[in-house]
Amino acid sequence: xxxxxxxxxxxxxxxxxxxxxxxxxxxxxxxxxxxxxxxxxxxxxxxxxxxxxxxxxxxxxxxxxxxxxxxxxxxxxxxxxxxxxxxxxxxxxxxxxxxxxxxxxxxxxxxxxxxxxxxxxxxxxxxxxxxxxxxxxxxxxxxxxxxxxxxxxxxxxxxxxxxxxxxxxxxxxxxxxxxxxxxxxxxxxxxxxxxxxxxxxxxxxxxxxxxxxxxxxxxxxxxxxxxxxxxxxxxxxxxxxxxxxxxxxxxxxxxxxxxxxxxxxxxxx
Length: 269
What we know:
The protein has helices spanning 3-7, 12-21, 25-29, 31-35, 38-67, 88-94, 116-129, 139-148, 152-163, 180-193, 210-213, 220-228, 241-268; strands spanning 105-109, 134-138, 167-173, 198-203, 231-235. By secondary structure, the chain is of the alpha/beta class. The chain has a five-stranded parallel β-sheet with strand order 2-3-4-1-5.
């Protein structure tokens, strides 16, 4: 059922509420007069349905654009048989977004190419579809941007920006090492979101190895503590799925080239 179809089944009070949400104050002032005439009432119901559907579409497009998720593989296309270890039930439960209700965090741990980013992107996409706000960014982009700000006021504004989304997806923690300054900035951001908004992190390092990511940073233990408190940790183990796809493409190209050579020889004979 579309939003416009649903509008036709709403009660008078619900229609009034919808008109108020759409800020149709002139219509509300003349509500009894307009809705007392069947033809006009049907037109108003249809109009409210159209407008609600259009605003929903625009809101979805805006939130998807602002999320910066980009292109990603749908979870429905993921080969669950490929990882040596992956708790499918845990991942699918995360897609219900129950963890957002109590601002729990999600940490996806595993080596390169096993599907951590894919899972994170799917979580962000599901959040947007559910009417939530999401933002995807790599750790390098996030910390590089924050560290480059040259004034306290600019830094505070940017921290507020990253603290605002219902779910913040920070990708690739552990692929680079960072200074104490970077560690302090990440700690500040995670602290602002702690118990208020959910943060999703993908990392190729176990928490015991985060000292290598943020060497000599005094806040690492506290950072991990805030991330881990009420967090769902999903470990994915296995060989790189991207490498598997690359090998499959190369094998297909070899078959195609061999077929072309065979066809060429056949034409010459």
